[in-house]
Write a structure and sequence with these properties.
With 228 residues, this protein is an all-alpha fold. It has ten helices and no strands.
């Protein structure tokens, strides 16, 4: 299929809300948003604690957290696969080759990004407002919530960055999800498969949708930054 014909067909698939296309997009959004929500619930408080609480080895933990921001997705996929396989410690849960396994893999990938950026934001705010909060006698838990709220716009940017990483992920989700049609096929894995099969129209349609989502996320991050 020529590029012009494939592009025209791709636009028609998007405009017509093709069932297969929409199913893949819905699953991708469900997995990525779930992973980002879990990573945020864990990563935001974790980053705040690392910024405010001194303990032996904190520097090592911070360095490791920053290093994990660049975790290779295929390595994460392999680790989660071994964890969820029948012979693994969590094999009895039966999560392998399900959307749940993909959520776990993406959460592992996004968590270091959210936690590391949250730690930096809270640390900067503590340097600015620490003396004032101490003079008011604020307890540590109250300080954590106060600084997280004060830095909400910067933290939202970190969450959006995590979503961008999750939405564009292909290696880890293909390993733990299996790229099963109608079950675990996401936009990125479908693009890889359909391109190899020569179905350029569907691959282009998914690519255009993915690019649109990335543009929306980056636009939202810019707006949040301007508002901050």
């Amino acid at each position: 299929m020529e590029f012009s014909a494939a592009f025209t067909t791709a636009i028609a698939l998007i405009a017509g809300l093709d069932a297969e296309l929409m199913g893949v997009v819905r699953l991708s959004l469900l997995v990525s948003l779930s992973a980002v929500a879990l990573a945020s619930l864990i990563g935001l408080p974790l980053g705040a604690v690392l910024a405010l609480v001194a303990f032996p080895g904190r520097g090592v933990v911070v360095v490791a957290l920053n290093a994990f921001m660049g975790l290779p997705p295929v390595v994460v996929g392999l680790a989660v696969y071994l964890l969820l396989s029948r012979a693994g410690p969590l094999g009895e849960l039966g999560l392998l080759f399900t959307p749940g396994a993909m959520v776990v893999a993406q959460t592992v990938l996004v968590l270091p990004i959210v936690a590391a950026l949250a730690r930096q934001v809270v640390a900067d705010l503590w340097d600015e407002y620490g003396e004032q909060l101490r003079s008011l006698g604020a307890r540590r838990r109250r300080v954590v919530f106060t600084l997280l709220w004060d830095g909400r716009f910067s933290l939202l940017t970190a969450v959006l960055a995590g979503f961008g990483r999750a939405a564009a992920e292909v290696g880890a989700v293909m390993i733990v999800g299996g790229n099963i049609k109608g079950v675990t096929r996401t936009m990125t894995t479908a693009i890889a498969l359909e391109t190899s099969r020569g179905d350029l129209a569907l691959a282009l349609a998914l690519g255009l949708v993915l690019l649109t989502l990335v543009a929306i996320v980056n636009g939202a991050a810019y707006v949040v930054g301007q508002r901050r």
